[in-house]
Design goal:
The complex is a heterodimer of chains A (329) and B (327). Chain A is mostly helical and 329 residues long. Chain A is built from 13 helices and no strands. Chain A has a single domain, classed as Na+/H+ antiporter like fold. Chain B is mostly helical and 327 residues long. Chain B has a single domain, classed as Na+/H+ antiporter like fold. Chain B is 76% helix and 0% strand. Chain B is built from twelve helices and no strands. Classes of the chains: A mainly alpha (329), B mainly alpha (327). At the A-B interface, helix 2, helix 3 and helix 9 of A face helix 1, helix 2 and helix 8 of B.
């Protein structure tokens, strides 16, 4: 480990810290607010983020981002592989404990792609990273409503996915980006005003998403960690390792070309996608598991606590790896 | 023929996005029929974290001019002082006994609506000036306003305003520019980055909270707030125009542009910010204080609703006058 850090240049370490520490600062504020509030009003933050802020962020990111079906496919397929890989690994590791405790399995598979990933992606990789993070979250959400619900209740609920504002605003964002007809000046002006309002809201979502993630963590106790070491460690260690395998597979099959060529921007775009996949897979367990699993048991709480605490160490390592090996030729 | 002039277009572009966001809040309020959203949690996040970060983030990045602060802060004080007797006169005419009635008339919503408009219309410089006005407005609201509705002034509460401390820190950071050693400078940069991200949350969350508050206002109750809201929306900017011309007459605001166009633009922006803030409807905080001290909350809510709706028309009109006669 010491050797790994010694390889990083001061600039790389500084870039990593500038992206990561502000997020941790805001996360601590979220935990503080949760403790202060006794985490009684999680629904308030969930509704604000689910109905307004996250959809606005998705629209704002997607409609500024060039529509590329290959990119969407590669992120979607990667999410599927990461999720399936993690489900298999988690199932075999936790199989003695899974019976009657499917929430814990879910906690080790399902990452917080909608709360921590977008702000981190935006701070580190700008709008390009943000748009990719939104696609990543979209596919994780599909998993949440299908396999996730099936794991917990034995029934998938794909219909509910189509009712989420996030899905509608992403479709709207893609449609707005690719609208084939020229509009009259007045309509263009109106849509500009609407976009400006959505953009202002989107920028406000970044701190709110992190706070909404930290808010329920305020209730977790140190003793909760006992039952969650294996699940938590799987989430933050096995997650990025599975993602690394996917990235290697993509490079081998040529889906994310390693050829720099003349198109430097295209090359950077591939690397950002890879970085995003690694970062997304390294996220700690989602606080939403608590909502999905109902009254979360000790193991789920432990998995969340261990993964969040451990992520303070593993995310910087993944970030340094990204800066040192993904963006370097 | 253009129906809307370019000037008007700039104003609409600055004003309407805020109302679009308020509409999202209103929509959320309508969807949340069981009232599961706890506004106190949102208010606490904004009050204790987002607003102080916005204040610090806006103030520490620009050079601080005490004269400018005196002019803008002084204007806020004078406008509040000018509106107070008028509000009490209206209160007596309306045969209302509770002092809570005058709060939404005297004080302005310098946070939710004014800050985004200042940012969109005048950029970061305008935002910093609007924050100076906002700070003076909330300081008087938390001292004199609390006294009006509760009969006592709680100076301890006043000292606990987080935005006040953020102002002090922001001004200190802007005025002192010490050469920090490498590692401390890096830490300062990283902390600033976190503060900037938090600051971005202030404006949209404030406006969504405003829209959400308005979602349970019924049309039948609006009549009660018509007089107070009209006075706030029409009387406020009139007084501000008078004040700005008064400033010019005594020489606090030079009329002649002078050699430096940026300095002249700074003066005109200060004037525009004073008038813009004076044109704002009553603040939500006034309503929350009325609820807290059970002092005429229904009429205050009605005044806020009428004022905010009326502001859709009067704020662009005021800004048109500002661009024509001030800028």
């Amino acid at each position: 480990m010491e050797h790994f850090f010694a390889l990083a240049t001061p600039l790389e370490i500084r870039m990593m810290l500038r992206g990561f520490i502000p997020i941790v600062m805001i996360l601590i504020i979220g935990i503080f607010i949760g403790r202060w509030d006794n985490s009684k009003h999680q629904q308030t933050l969930n509704k604000l983020t689910d109905y307004i802020f996250l959809p606005c962020l998705a629209f704002s990111a997607i409609h500024k981002h060039a529509f590329d079906p290959v990119e969407i496919f590669s992120i979607g397929a990667a999410v599927l592989m990461i999720m399936v890989g993690m489900t298999v690994v988690s199932f075999f590791t936790l199989r003695d404990k899974v019976r009657g405790c499917s929430g814990n399995l879910l906690a080790s598979v399902y990452m917080s792609s909608g709360s921590l990933l977008p702000p981190l992606a935006f701070v580190l990789f700008g709008y390009e990273g943000l748009a990719k993070a939104i696609y990543f979250h979209l596919f994780v959400t599909i998993f949440y409503y299908t396999a996730g619900r099936w794991m917990v209740s034995g029934r998938a609920d794909f219909k509910s996915f189509f009712k989420t504002p996030l899905f509608h605003l992403i479709i709207l964002g893609i449609a707005a980006r690719n609208f084939p007809f020229s509009l009259s000046d007045n309509i263009q002006e109106l849509s500009w005003l609407l976009e400006k309002g959505i953009h202002l809201t989107a920028m406000g979502s970044l701190p709110l998403l992190i706070i909404s993630f930290g808010y329920p963590l305020g209730l977790l106790k140190r003793s909760d960690a006992n039952g969650g070491f294996v699940g938590g460690a799987l989430r933050i260690v096995a997650g990025p390792l599975v993602a690394l395998l996917v990235v290697c597979l993509y490079r081998m099959t040529g889906l994310t070309s390693m050829e720099r060529g003349y198109d430097v921007l295209g090359y950077l775009d591939y690397r950002t996608t890879e970085a995003l996949l690694l970062l997304g897979a390294a996220m700690p367990s989602s606080h939403r598991v608590i909502c999905l699993a109902g009254d979360a048991g000790k193991a789920e709480r432990g998995t969340i606590l261990v993964s969040v605490t451990g992520a303070v160490i593993t995310i910087p390592i993944v970030l340094l790896y990204i800066l040192m090996y993904i963006f370097e030729e | 023929m253009n129906l809307i002039s370019n000037e008007m277009l700039i104003i609409i572009r600055a004003v309407l996005p805020s109302f679009v966001i308020a509409f999202f809040g209103l929509l959320l309020g309508k969807l949340d029929s069981k009232r599961e959203i706890n506004q106190k949690t949102i208010s606490n996040i904004v009050y204790y974290f987002f607003t102080p970060c916005l204040v610090f983030s806006s103030l520490h990045k620009r050079s601080f001019d005490f004269q400018e602060f005196a002019v803008i802060g002084g204007a806020a004080l004078i406008l509040i002082a000018m509106m107070t007797p008028v509000a009490f006169f209206v209160k007596r005419r309306a045969a209302v006994h509770e002092n809570g009635y005058v709060l939404p008339i005297i004080f302005m919503n310098t946070g939710n609506i004014s800050l985004p408009i200042a940012l969109l219309m005048f950029g970061n410089d305008g935002l910093a000036k609007a924050i100076m006005f906002h700070m003076m407005n909330i300081m008087v609201l938390y001292s004199y306003g609390v006294y009006l509705v509760s009969g006592k002034t709680d100076l301890m509460q006043f000292a606990k305003i987080p935005a006040l401390w953020a102002t002090v820190l922001g001004v200190t950071a802007a005025t002192s520019n010490p050469a920090l050693p490498g590692i401390i400078s890096d830490v300062y940069d990283i902390v600033n980055k976190g503060i900037d991200v938090l600051a971005q949350g202030a404006i949209p969350v404030l406006i969504i909270n405003l829209g959400y508050s308005m979602s349970d206002t019924k049309l039948s109750t609006l009549k009660a707030g018509l007089t107070g809201a009209s006075l706030r929306l029409l009387g406020g900017p009139l007084m501000a125009f008078g004040l700005v011309y008064g400033y010019r007459m005594i020489g606090w605001m030079p009329v002649i542009p002078g050699m430096d166009p940026l300095v002249a633009l700074g003066y005109r922006t200060s004037e525009a910010i004073i008038i813009l803030n004076a044109a704002m409807p009553g603040p939500i905080m006034a309503y929350l204080l009325n609820v807290k001290f059970d002092n005429c909350p229904a009429k205050a809510a009605s005044m806020l609703a009428v004022g905010t709706l009326g502001g859709i028309v009067t704020i662009p009109l005021t800004l048109t006058l500002v661009t024509r006669y001030i800028l």
